[in-house]
Every structure is written in structure tokens, then in C-alpha cells.
């Protein structure tokens, strides 16, 4: 396999640029904050998180998949399946894992204090899809490693999943307009921007709904699906009641939000 880090980075940059262009050509909602400042701080956080992973994680998901395959550990290493079937199974089951993890980060108070930094963004656009606290990123990585080893996922399947996860997160956080027929059709299978925007509403019952990142079926199956925001997409207020000051969108403030009331 070629360098997986370069492959992931190439897809990340490509999807980021495409979604940014889509937002520019067909914006869904008028932004309330200065875009340049938000982008600098949100993308600065992405760089800081990458540094934390490099310095603090002895393994990441790809390395854990290589070890599991070499050691014969995990469910899929005990089965003989075509590679495309294995990739499909890994993508679906890891996406379910991310859904359950997301639900947990909303339900457990300490984890919510970490995750609420993602929700404290007062606008939602493509950069919000990568705005997570570094402690949450590290915890998420260990959860993903445990799931990868338990499944015995191949390195290629993990790489495909990580590309799909990152791309879908940027897609469904995009401040971009889909036609209503296209949205209705797409959200039968995947999470669309209109579906996920409900999750970023300041209204609590909407904040704690629509937890899916890629597949939309989990919210429907587990009863966490909410079709539309109460006030409509044009009037829905984005964020959480805390941290409404514009200064809270700076990197230093974002990093300390979990430790402040």
C-alpha cells in the first residue's frame, strides 16, 4: 500500500476544496461570524490535533489493522471473504461504532464537556466537520483501534473507512444547498447537510438528535432521527447556549472550553 497518510491528506484537501467551492456557489444559510477567523482557528485546530496524534499515539487505526492481520486477531481474520465484502462490512460496522460513540459523547457529562466544543461553533460549514477537541480525538482513536482489532479489519478496509468518514463529515457539515428532492433521496442512505444541521441547533432536543456521520440508517433504527429543525433551516440558531462570545472561536479558548463552566 502507498503511504496511507498521504492518501488520506490528498482526499481531505480535495473534499475540503470541493465543499468550500460548493458553499461559495450555493450557500444554504447566511453566516453570522467572520469566515476568515473561523477558518484559521478551525483549521489550526486540525493541525494541532494532527501533532497530538503524532506525538502521543504509538499506533493509529492503520497500524492496528496491520498488527491484527499479521497476528490473525479479529473476526474477519477467521473468515474467508472477498475483499470487497470485507471492506463493505468494515465500513458499515465502523460507522455504527462512530454513531454509538457520538451518542455516548452526548450522554455522558464528562464526554459532553469535551464534545460540546464541536457544537460551540456559531456557524456550521465544512471546517466544522474537523473541529474536535484533541482529547476527544485521542479517545476516539482508541475506540477506533479497539473496533478495528476486534473486527480484524484489513488495512485497506480501514483506509477506505477513514476516507469515507472524513469526506462525509465535511460533506454533511457543509453550508451548502441541496435541492429538496436530492436531499430526500440522499438522506435515505447517507447523512445530508440539512439532516445534520438539525444536530447543530441551539435547541437541546435538536442538539441531541441525528448522530450519524455517514449512514443515516442508525438514527432511524435507534429512534434518534429528527427530520427538520423546529424553526426551519433559514432561522435555526447554530451552537450551544454557552460560549456565545466571538472570542470563544479562537484556538486558545476552544482548547480550554471543556474545563470551564
From TrEMBL:
UniProt cross-references to Pfam families, sorted A to Z: FA_hydroxylase
The keyword Transmembrane is annotated on this UniProt entry: yes
Residue ranges occupied by any Fatty acid hydroxylase domain in the UniProt entry: 88-224
Keyword Transmembrane helix in record: yes
InterPro entries (alphabetical): Fatty_acid_hydroxylase, Sterol_Desaturase_Related
Localisation per UniProt entry: Membrane
Keywords: Membrane, Transmembrane, Transmembrane helix
Spans through the membrane: 6-27, 39-61, 81-105, 141-165
Protein name stated in the entry: Sterol desaturase
Native source species: Vibrio panuliri
Taxonomic lineage from the root: Bacteria, Pseudomonadati, Pseudomonadota, Gammaproteobacteria, Vibrionales
Amino acid at each position: 500500500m502507498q503511504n496511507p497518510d498521504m492518501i488520506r491528506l490528498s482526499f481531505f484537501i480535495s473534499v475540503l476544496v470541493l465543499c468550500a467551492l460548493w458553499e461559495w456557489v450555493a450557500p444554504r444559510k447566511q453566516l453570522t461570524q467572520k469566515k476568515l477567523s473561523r477558518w484559521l482557528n478551525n483549521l489550526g485546530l486540525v493541525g494541532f490535533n494532527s501533532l497530538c496524534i503524532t506525538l502521543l499515539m504509538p499506533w493509529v487505526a492503520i497500524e492496528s489493522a496491520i498488527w491484527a492481520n499479521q497476528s490473525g486477531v479479529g473476526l474477519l481474520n477467521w473468515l474467508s471473504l472477498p475483499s470487497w465484502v470485507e471492506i463493505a462490512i468494515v465500513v458499515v460496522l465502523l460507522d455504527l461504532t462512530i454513531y454509538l460513540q457520538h451518542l455516548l459523547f452526548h450522554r455522558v457529562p464528562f464526554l459532553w464537556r469535551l464534545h460540546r466544543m464541536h457544537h460551540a461553533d456559531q456557524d456550521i460549514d465544512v471546517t466544522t466537520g474537523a473541529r474536535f477537541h484533541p482529547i476527544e480525538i485521542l479517545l476516539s482513536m482508541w475506540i477506533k483501534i479497539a473496533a478495528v482489532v476486534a473486527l480484524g479489519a484489513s488495512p485497506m478496509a480501514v483506509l477506505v473507512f477513514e476516507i469515507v468518514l472524513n469526506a462525509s463529515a465535511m460533506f454533511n457539515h457543509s453550508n451548502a444547498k441541496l435541492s429538496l428532492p436530492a436531499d430526500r433521496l440522499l438522506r435515505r442512505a447517507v447523512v445530508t447537510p440539512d439532516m445534520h444541521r438539525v444536530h447543530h441547533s441551539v435547541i437541546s432536543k435538536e442538539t441531541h438528535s441525528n448522530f450519524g456521520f455517514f449512514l443515516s440508517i442508525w438514527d432511524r433504527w435507534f429512534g434518534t432521527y429528527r427530520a427538520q429543525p423546529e424553526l426551519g433551516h433559514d432561522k435555526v440558531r447554530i451552537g450551544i447556549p454557552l460560549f456565545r462570545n466571538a472570542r470563544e472561536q479562537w484556538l486558545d479558548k476552544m482548547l480550554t472550553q471543556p474545563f470551564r463552566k
